[in-house]
Amino acid sequence: MLVILKRDNEEISREAAQLVAGAVRKKPALTLGLATGGTMTGVYKHLVQFHKQGLLDFSQVVTFNLDEYLGLAATHPQSFHYFMHEHFFQHVNVDPRNIHIPDGTVRGNFEQYCATYEDAIRKAGGIDLQILGIGRNGHIGFNEPTSSLGSRTRLKVLSQETIDDNAKFFAPSEESPRCAITMGIGTILEAKKIILLATGAAKATAVAKSIEGPIASAVSASALQLHPEVTFIVDEQAASQLTQRDYYRRVLEMTALLTPERMS
Ligand code: GLP
Question: May I ask the CATH architecture of the domain 2-263?
Answer without folding.
Answer: 3-Layer(aba) Sandwich (3.40)
